[in-house]
């Protein structure tokens, strides 16, 4: 993932678990903008899941969730950024 100086995110690479957040599981070999996300201040990417922090404190996650690593109270993979609604 790459974070632009305008707070937009571009993703590229393997996407077998939806970890690029583009709504599909198709690998991308060029940086591709994740639509509808703005004011991002921090990004983090694992092997097959990703996390985003927005300027207003919202946390978005996507990708592999086989072990609940997205923090969404389930084990369903996500291929679009999904807001984490509760932090304990």
Overview of the molecule:
It contains no helices and 7 strands. The protein has a 4-stranded antiparallel sheet with strand order 4-5-6-7, with no helix packed on it. By secondary structure, the protein is mostly beta strands. It has one domain. 0% of the residues lie in helices and 41% in strands. β1 and β2 form a beta hairpin. The N and C termini lie far apart (27 Å).
The domain count comes to 1
Give the low-confidence spans: none
Determine the fraction of residues in helical runs and give it as a percent range.
under 10%
Report how far the terminal alpha carbons are from each other: 27 Å
Short description:
The chain has 88 residues and is mainly beta. The protein contains no helices and seven strands.
Name the descriptors.
3-stranded antiparallel β-sheet, 4-stranded antiparallel β-sheet, mainly beta, 88 residues
Secondary-structure blueprint:
Blueprint: E1 2-3, E2 9-13, E3 28-33, E4 40-45, E5 49-54, E6 59-63, E7 78-83
Antiparallel strand pairs: 1-2, 2-3, 4-5, 5-6, 6-7
């Amino acid at each position: 993932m790459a974070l632009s100086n305008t707070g937009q995110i571009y993703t590229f690479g393997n996407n077998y678990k939806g970890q690029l957040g583009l709504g599909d599981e198709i690998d991308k070999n060029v940086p591709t903008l994740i639509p509808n996300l703005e004011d991002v201040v921090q990004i983090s990417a694992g092997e097959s899941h990703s996390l985003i922090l927005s300027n207003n404190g919202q946390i978005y996650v996507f990708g592999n969730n086989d072990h609940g690593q997205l923090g969404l109270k389930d084990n369903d993979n996500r291929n679009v950024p999904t807001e984490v609604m509760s932090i304990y």
